[in-house]
Amino acid sequence: MISMATNLPHILLIYTGGTIGMIKDAETGALRAFDFNNLLLRIPELKLLDCNIETFSFTKPIDSSNMQPKYWLEMADLIAKNYNKFDGFVILHGSDTMSYSASALSFLLENLNKPVIFTGSQLPIGDLRTDAKENLITSIQVASLQENNEPIIKEVGLYFEYKLYRGNRTTKINAEHFEAFASLNYPELAESGVHLKINDPYLYSNKGKGELIVHSDLETNITIVKLFPGITKAVLESVLNIEGLKGVVLETYGSGNCSTELWFLKLLKEIIKKGIVVVNVTQCSGGSVAMGQYETSEKLKKIGLISGRDITTEAALSKLMYLLPKKLSKKGFKEMFQTEIRGEMTSS
């Protein structure tokens, strides 16, 4: 534990894996995870923070590329078990799938009234030029922010390179720059500079919605289909006829447009009739689906596609996983998906 003062915020630092927790082996030069019990040896600046920090590390660190829904459930369960003991949580995670995990946790943790901040780095914590220290220190500081003994941030966030974003609004946009993430359809929640500026109007609040509810059921028999000029009937059929398929995130062009080829529309209509949910999201990094704005998307609306509005692909995927086990009616599912429930899309 770092610091022992009882009147300070208590933060649980959870290491799941990823570049941020890596150091170079002195002999081989290979990257390996370091012991988070020795965190102060690597980042002594943590002793200057006005909070108590406890650490928890997954027994076997998970590379970001190996992230799975079962690990999301583990993270949610860990937060549930420690929810009353800590004032905030910081999750160290590989950057490649961080937006997926942050989106998933936002849905799994209903009525969240404490900060759950995801962060990571582009360079290992032991690297001379690492971005890990700033990301980690400020994430802990953000998770510690309080006003009248209440956390200021009460949602799942993602902090990277001086900006705090709503987790389910983010997308990784760069594999090399320190500014790896963007939230093109929603403003940042906070920005770190000489001062830590909180954008209060954009913070999410569950005030009056009751105690934390942690969900533990996700439907994983879903897929993402990205349209491209020249996609063939055979290719699309092979994907949409997967046995046991329950849902599809369809990445369309622009504001939700697609081919008007008869075979294409017929195929989508057939799987929707079978009860497979198809959600229309845009391929663009920013902007929104507006089905009916053009003739090409009007046809999708008529055959029963659900509009994802300005939701990201990452959030659409995890929202599908979250909603499908709830056995909603066709109409109820459509209404729920098109309704903002964790700040993941702009309300109509």
Secondary structure: elements and pairs:
Blueprint: E1 10-15, E2 22-24, E3 31-33, H1 39-42, E4 52-57, H2 69-82, E5 88-92, H3 98-108, E6 109-110, E7 116-119, H4 132-144, E8 146-147, E9 150-151, E10 156-160, E11 163-166, E12 171-172, E13 181-182, E14 190-192, E15 196-198, E16 213-214, E17 222-226, H5 233-240, E18 247-252, H6 262-273, E19 277-282, H7 295-303, E20 306-307, H8 313-323, H9 330-337
Helix pairs in contact: 2-3, 3-8, 5-6
Give a written overview of the molecule.
The protein is an alpha/beta fold and 348 residues long. Helix 2 (69-82) crosses helix 3 and helix 3 (98-108) packs parallel to helix 8 (313-323). The longest helix is centred in the N-terminal third of the chain and has 14 residues, at 69-82. The mean pLDDT is 91. The strands form 6 sheets. It has an 8-stranded mixed sheet, with helices on both faces. The protein is globular, with a radius of gyration of 21 Å. The chain has helices spanning 39-42, 69-82, 98-108, 132-144, 233-240, 262-273, 295-303, 313-323, 330-337; strands at 10-15, 22-24, 31-33, 52-57, 88-92, 109-110, 116-119, 146-147, 150-151, 156-160, 163-166, 171-172, 181-182, 190-192, 196-198, 213-214, 222-226, 247-252, 277-282, 306-307. Helix content is 26%, strand content 21%. The chain contains 9 helices and 20 strands.
Radius of gyration equals 21 Å
Give the strand line-up of the largest sheet: 4-1-5-7-10-11-14-15
Strand content range: 15-25%
Let me know the average pLDDT. Answer: 91
DSSP strand tally: 20
Q: How would you sum up the major sheet?
A: 8 strands, mixed
**Secondary-structure content class:** alpha/beta
Poorly predicted regions are none
Instruction: Give helix and strand order, one letter per element, not per position.
Output: EEEHEHEHEEHEEEEEEEEEEHEHEHEHH
What is the count of helical runs?
9
